[in-house]
Amino acid sequence: MPQDIAKHVEALIFSSVQSINVQEIILALNAVFNEEINEKQIFESLALLTTKYNGDDFTIELVNLNNGYQFLTKKEFHETVNQLQLHRSKKKLSQAAMETLAIIAYRQPITKLEIEQIRGVNSDYSVQRLLEKELISIEGKAETPGRPILYSTSPLFMDYFGLNHLNQLPQLKDIARDENTIGENPE
């Protein structure tokens, strides 16, 4: 029998993206050690870990969620972690992503092919980043051959830019400047 099952249980919980249940822990440990690990040993290890992480030396705690276990930040540190998440989520979009977002906002619903025809370059990466940031969403599929995906702006886009309706987007006449005209100004 392994000398310190708790360390192995701790490693499993730490490395799991979502909560891990007792049966998953037992399966993993039984695969590593050629001995039967039982629920009692796991629960004893979980109790030791809970006590360990409840101390003031740690900013995380072991939490029982959905019949599984996961390490989470202690409540008193939620605001600090939240600030980091907000900062990361508000990182600026690249010029290509901004162009793609503007095209989608003004021409939605629109396919990726139509976006690429307007921009003149491949827009796979920009569309993917905008989907990841949840600024655009998949609206459905076009009724054209191949049934390409239609993209449109998301509710997060509306919140982020402070819009209630798409008709609040600036119109070209509102942002066109005289220096962008070609030829003489007819007065």
UniProtKB/TrEMBL annotation:
Gene3D superfamilies: Winged helix-like DNA-binding domain superfamily/Winged helix DNA-binding domain. InterPro entries: ScpB_csome_segregation, WH-like_DNA-bd_sf, WH_DNA-bd_sf. SUPFAM superfamilies: Winged helix' DNA-binding domain. GO terms for biological process: cell division; chromosome separation. Keywords: Cell cycle, Cell division, Chromosome partition, Cytoplasm. NCBIfam families: SMC-Scp complex subunit ScpB. This is SMC-Scp complex subunit ScpB.
